[in-house]
Write a structure and sequence with these properties.
It contains 4 helices and 13 strands. It has helices spanning 9-25, 31-34, 148-161, 214-222, and strands at 59-62, 71-77, 80-88, 91-100, 107-113, 134-139, 168-175, 183-185, 192-199, 207-213, 229-237, 244-249, 253-255. Helix 1 packs across helix 3 (148-161). The longest helix has 17 residues, at 9-25.
Length: 258
């Protein structure tokens, strides 16, 4: 997902965690950030103006100046207004800062459409862990509870970025072959858990809807109850495999309703 040829593996891991820090940091130009109030809902792509790169509440999630950015644009498709992502050897995402109690609103719902997969991608390996679509939710928590290595990495992230990294992140992905329901560590950090919600080419080109219980997923991934949700993000990335990909994201909800 994040490869910078002039860095060694340790620096790549730091880069990934800096990306996680960006999920928490957001962008200070957002009006909700200026006012110091974080919304308790996810802003809908369907309510954005056509041609806009994202709703006002969402912000670019840029990993490194060495990476080309994925192009995000609100378009009309199949009678609905959706977010289109186009990546050409690119890696960047969008994020929104939120503040939601998952013990109250625990159901994450979204839909996406993927025209093609990335045959060379392998989410379990550094250097090939691209994905045509990702749905990302990050959580607050006590970083002091982490093991020595993760605390050291968290300290490095804060020193470099000035921001705390998220305590934990769930990342829902579409994989080439791993079975649906697979949970695995990101190859960059055990504080990021990948969850395979779609696999293979059977539903390519179709709108596919999902509903996930965030509390159940968090407990399975990290063995504890989650604290508040602090960001939601999407990402289409192809910089590791150096390929092109297009994907479409519909509206995202975090709700009390199953």
């Amino acid at each position: 997902m994040i490869t910078i040829s002039m860095w060694d593996n340790r620096h790549r891991s730091v880069a990934f965690l800096l990306c996680a820090a960006a999920l928490l940091a957001g962008c200070s130009s957002a009006s909700t950030t200026r006012l110091g109030a974080k919304p308790d809902r996810v802003a809908a792509f369907s309510l954005s103006q056509l041609g806009e790169p994202h709703p006002l509440e969402w912000q670019p999630w840029v990993f490194s100046r060495f990476n080309r950015r994925t192009d995000y644009r609100v378009i009309e498709m199949d009678g609905r207004r959706v977010l289109r992502a186009q990546a050409q050897t690119a890696a960047s995402g969008l994020l929104q800062e939120i503040e939601i109690d998952p013990l109250v609103s625990r159901h994450l719902k979204w839909h996406w459409s993927v025209p093609q997969l990335l045959p060379e991608a392998d989410l379990s390996k550094k250097g090939s862990d691209d994905s045509p679509v990702r749905m990302i939710v990050s959580f607050d928590g006590d970083l002091a509870k982490l093991d020595v290595e993760d605390r050291a990495m968290a300290g490095m992230v804060k020193m470099v970025s000035g921001r705390e990294m998220p305590y934990a992140t769930l990342m829902y992905v579409w994989d080439n072959k791993l079975p649906i329901g697979t949970f695995l560590d990101s190859p960059h950090s055990s504080r990021v858990k990948l969850i395979v919600v779609e696999s293979g080419s059977g539903r390519l080109g179709k709108w596919v809807s999902y509903s996930r219980n965030l509390v159940a997923d968090f407990k399975r991934a990290f063995g504890e109850m989650p604290e508040k949700i602090i960001t939601v993000g999407v990402m289409t990335d192809t910089n590791a495999t150096e390929k092109d990909a297009t994907a479409y994201y519909g509206d995202i909800e975090i709700t009390t309703q199953e």
